[in-house]
Known about the structure:
The complex is a heterodimer.
Chain A: H1 2-22, H2 28-32, E1 36-41, H3 46-60, E2 63-66, H4 70-78, E3 85-88, H5 94-103, E4 107-121, E5 131-132, H6 133-140, E6 164-168, H7 173-182, E7 194-196, H8 199-207, E8 212-217, H9 218-222, E9 229-231, E10 233-234, H10 249-254, E11 261-269, H11 276-285, H12 289-294, H13 302-313, H14 332-339
Parallel strand pairs in A: 1-2, 1-3, 5-10, 6-7, 6-8
Antiparallel strand pairs in A: 3-11, 4-8, 4-9, 4-11
Chain B: H1 9-54, H2 60-64, H3 77-108, H4 113-125, H5 130-144, H6 151-175, H7 179-187, H8 192-220, H9 224-228, H10 249-257, H11 262-297
Helix pairs in contact in B: 1-11, 3-6, 3-8, 3-10, 5-6, 6-8, 7-8, 8-11, 10-11
Amino acid sequence: MLQHIIRGAAIAGSVVALAACGRGTQPAGESTSATLIRVDGSSTVFPITEAVAEEFFAKTGVRVTVGISGTGGGFQRFCRGETDISDASRPIRQAEIDACRTAGIEYIELPIAYDGIAVVVNPKNTWADRITVAELRTLWSPEAQGKVTRWSQMRGSWPDREIRLFGAGVDSGTYDYFTEATVGKEGASRGDFTSSEDDNVLVQGVASDELALGFLPLAYVEQNRERLKVVPVDDEQADNGAGPIVPSAETVREGTYQPLSRPLFIYVSRTAADRPEVQQFVESFFTSQALIREVGYIELTPQIYELVERHFAERRVGTAFGEGGSQVGMTLEQLLAKQR
Amino acid sequence: MNGTVLTTSADGRALRAIAWRRRIDLLFQVLALAILCLALVFLATLIADVWRDGASRLSWDFLTRIASRRPEQAGIWHALTGSIFVILVTAVLAVPVGIAGAIYLEEYGTRSRLARLIEINITNLAAVPSIIYGLLGLGLFVRMLAMGPSVLAGAATLALLVLPVIILSTREALRAVPGSIREGSYALGATKWQTVWYQVLPVALPGILTGTILALSRAIGETAPLITIGALTFVPFAPDSIWSPFTVLPIQIFNWVSRPQREFHAVAAAGILVLLVLLVTMNAAAIWLRDRYQKKLG
C-alpha cells in the first residue's frame, strides 16, 4: 500500500510537471506579458481598477491581474519592471522616483478619481455639528497624546466628557493623507487612538460609542449612513467655499470639501503604454465614470478627464509633485497645468 | 461468613476513599466534557453566523464565476482553483522532502551532533511567524530564482512553511513504531534501508498522513506570506500552469470583508463556507486514509 501511495504521488508530480511544460519554462512575467496586463498597488484604488479590468476583460478578453501590495509596495514592484501599471492613493515619493530612474523606468502619472475622507461621530452625539481644521490639528497632533482627552478641550461649548478616537491604520494611505491635511506632516499623529486596517471595524467602533470621533473614506460612510453622523469640516478659507462643508460627491469634485479630499492615481509604465492592449485599458479609465461611482468613489470633472486624456495621449512622463508627497489644497487643474 | 462481618471501620474508610476517588474521577470527566462543549459551542456559533450571512449566496454560479465589482455576480472560481492548485504543488514539494528528512533524523542520524542541531532548528522553525516565510519567498523564489509571483513561488513558500510541521509529525509517527519490528527485521537479515522501507514506513504511514494533511490544512488558510510574495487579488482566470499568476481563497475573502458595501460581506461569508468545506474535506481525507491503512496493517 505504500507503493500505492508513492505511485499516486509520482503521478501527481508528473501532472504538475506536465502542466508546467505546457506553458514553457519562463517565469510568469516573461511568458505571458504580451497578453497579460499586470497591475499592483494601493488597496484603496483596487475596487476601481478591478471594476475597469472586469469590464475590459468582458469586452476584449484581455486578462488584467490586480494586486493589493499597497501604494508603496506597488511602486517597489513597478520600479523593478514587474508590473505595467501601479495603483496609488498618493503621488509617487522621491525615493520611488529615484528607484524608477535608476532602473530606467519612465512613467505617466494619471489622476483617475477622487476619494474623500469624512470625519464621523456617533449619531447620538448632539454637539459636534461642525469642526474646523485647526480643531482637528489640536486633536490629532502628536503633542495631543494623553493631553487632549476631552471634548471640551477642543471647543469650550462642547461637553466635558471623554473623547475616544478611531482612525485608519498607520500603514494606509488614508492615514498618511489625513495627517498631512490636518496635522501638517505626513505620518505624524498621536498614537493613542484605536486604529484598524479594516475600515469596517472603525465603522463598528464609532457606531457603538457615543463619545467617538473617527475618520473614514467616504465610501464607507455612504454605506453606513444610518449608523454614523458626518461632521462638516471648515478649513476657514473663504475662497474654496465658506463655512463648514459636508463631504459629498459634489463638494469633493468641486474642490470645496478641503483639505480632506484627495486624488487617486494610476502610474503607467512608458514602455507598456505602447502596447495596444495597455493603451486601450488605460483609456477605458477615462470613460468609467459610472463604474467609479458604483464602487464608491468620486469621478473627476469632464474637463479634468480631458486634460488627463491629453496627458496620456502625449505620453507626458514624470510627476507633477516635485519633491513627492501629497499637495493638500491644490486642485488637479492647477497640478496638471503646472506640469505643462 | 456473611457480608456484615466484613464492614469493620477500616473497610468503611477504604470504601469511602474509593467512592471519593470515583467522584473526583466523574467530576474530571464532566469538566473535560464541559470544556470540550464550550470549544464546540464557539465553533458552532462561528459556523452558524457565517452560514446565516453567506448561505443565501452559495450556488453553483458562485463556484464557477470569477470575482466581480457587483456583489451579486461575484464568484470564487479563480480563488478556489488557485487554492487547490497551490496546495497540490505545495504537497508535491513538501511531503517527500519532509518525510525523507524525518527518516534521516529518526532512523539514521539519531545520536549525531549534527542531527541534534538540525532538530533544534526545525523545532524553532515551526514557530516562526508565517510572514517571515513570505519575505524569504519574495527574496529567494520570486526575485533570486526569478519565478515571479507564480503558483510555483507561492507553493514553494508554503512548502517551507509546512516543512517543519511535516518533519515533526513524521518523526512522532516513526518513533511510535515498536522497536521490536525493527529488531525482528534485522534478525531476518534485512538491511537498514529494507527495514525502513518495508517495515517501519508502512506502520508509521497513518500517522504520517494525518500530520501531513493537517500541515497542508494550515497552509491553505495562509494569507500573509502569499500577499508578501505578490499573490494577486483580482485574477480573472483559473491558473493554468505553475508559472501562472494566482490568488487564493483567504486573500479573496479578506478583500471582500474589507469592502464598504454590505452585500460583499455576504459574499465573503459564502467564501468562508467554501473554504471551510475544503478544509473539512481535507481533514476527512486524512481520517479516511488513516483508518484504511490502519485496518490493512492491523
